[in-house]
Amino acid sequence: MLSLEEIMERLLVAMAIGMLLGIEREHRDKSAGLRTITLISMGSCMFMLVSMIIDAGNTYRIASNIVTGIGFIGAGVIFKSDKGINGITTAATIWATAAVGMAVGGGLYLAALGACALILIVLALFIRIEQWIERINKERVYTITRRYEPGILLKYETLMKSFHLKFELEKRIKLDDDIQCSWRVQGSKSNQEKLVEALLEDPAIRKFEV
């Protein structure tokens, strides 16, 4: 059986790892910040310790319940907004933090520290890779309302092609003498901005949303 000193040592290590991960989330002003991530790491560690002390032969049962419980917490930080679904990375961080806390509780210090380092690399470095990908391959939905004329769709699709953008017509609605069209457009951020400028300068467009 583990001594009190060993239990406290593992809890302190779990707290330190949770703090490292929590500081990164707090720095980015996420809903699950320093205190939440630290408590998740310590709680997962403690559950693992309890399972080892009470029933060393069936630690997998409590471990599996930790994963289930963490799933509910992770779901609580995911929300939908006008710009899409937010909080998925924070939810994944919560899930990964619980796994690290469980590893510490099981005495796998090196594995836990290595996982912590890799998680921090993913959180700190991969966001820059995502930003780079977004710059070269951004997707937007353009909605244009203007007076209907024959060949009007071809006119704007030719304009999009001139800026080397890929597009897909999503909908077109006839509104009396007007027509409203929406395209899903994909391409580099700079080319998208050029398209926006061209559309804003078009006097025939009555309403433009992006």
From TrEMBL:
The chain crosses the membrane at residues 36-54, 60-79, 86-104, 110-129. Keywords: Cell membrane, Membrane, Transmembrane, Transmembrane helix. It comes from the Bacteria. Residues 11-131 form the MgtC/SapB/SrpB/YhiD N-terminal domain. It is found in: Cell membrane. Signal peptide: none annotated. It is a multi-pass membrane protein. GO terms for cellular component: plasma membrane. The keyword Membrane applies. Belongs to the MgtC/SapB family. This is Putative Mg2+ transporter-C (MgtC) family protein.
